[in-house]
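LOG
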Amino acid sequence: MARILFTIAESTSSGIHDYAYFRMLEEGHEVVVAAPVRKPTRSVVIVAGGANGTVDTFQQQPGLMIEVDAAFDEIDPSAYDALVIPGGPGPEYLRADFRCVDIVRHFVERDKPIAAICHGPNLLLEALYAAGIKGRRLSGNVVIKADVLAAGCVWVHTPGQAVVDANLVTAWRRPDYDVWMGAFVALLRQRGIWGLPAQ
C-alpha cells in the first residue's frame, strides 16, 4: 500500500478532492490530507454561470468540510510515494505558503508522481520554478496559461485528455476528473506503486 499526500486549502474544489480522494482509496492506498492548519477545512462547489444562471462567470458555493489529517509543518514528504493537488481556487492560496511549496518541491526533485488539475498546476509551477526546472508540459484551467508560459513550461490545452510528462499528470478541469485520475493510476502502476494486489 502506497501513501498518497493531498494538499488542500480553504476553497479547494469539493468535486475534485472527493473524486481523487476516493479513487486513491479504491486503489487501496493510504491517503493523508494536509493543509496549512490541522482543522476541518471548507471546500467549495464551483458552478459555471451560477446556481440560478445569473452569474456571468463562475459562482462559488459552500462545499463539504474536509477533515485534515496534518498541517504542512507536520509533514515529512519523504514518507509519501505520490502527491495529489486538487484544483479550485485553493492552490492559488497555497502557492504563497512556503512550507507547502517546499513539500511539492520534494516530489518534483525526486521524480515522484504528482497529479494536479484545474488551478492545481499553479502550486506545481511554484515548486518547478523553485527547483529551477523548465520545459515541462502542463495543462490546467485556461486562466493559468500565462503562468505556465512565464515559468518556462509548455502549455497544453487538451480537454478530454490528461497530459503526462514524466512524473507529472495534469488536466484541464471538470469534467476531466476521470481521465486525470485514470492517467495518474496508470503512472503509479508503471512506477510499481500498487495498492490492492494486481489482478
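LOG (cont.) second protein
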Amino acid sequence: MQRILTRIDPWSVLKVSLLLSLSLWLILVVAGIVLWRVAVATGTIGKFENFVASLLAEDSFVIDGMQIFRGSLVVGLVLVITGAVLAVTFSVLFNLIAGLTGGVRATVIELETARRVGRHRP
C-alpha cells in the first residue's frame, strides 16, 4: 500500500517539538546536577580548580556552580525555543515544497496481510 505525505500541520509540529525539547532539556539539567554533585563529592572540582590556578599562575581559581547552573538553564531554554521555531519553519517549508512536488511517497505494509517469507502455515 502506498501513501503520500503532502502536508504536516505546523501546530502539531510545534506541540511535539516543544514537548520533546523540554523533555531532553530536563533530562540534561538533572544529569548535569547529578554529575556536578558527584564531581564535588569526589573532589574532582577542587583538583580541577587547583590545576587551572597553577596553569594560570594564580593564587586561586574558583568555579561558581550556581552561575554555571543558571547559565545552562537560560541557554537550554533558548535552545528549546529555537528548536521549536526551526521545526515549525521546516514544516511550513515542507508544506510549500510538497505542494510543488506532490509530496513524499511512502510504501506501507500492513501486518495482517503481509506474508512471511520462508515459513509456511499448515
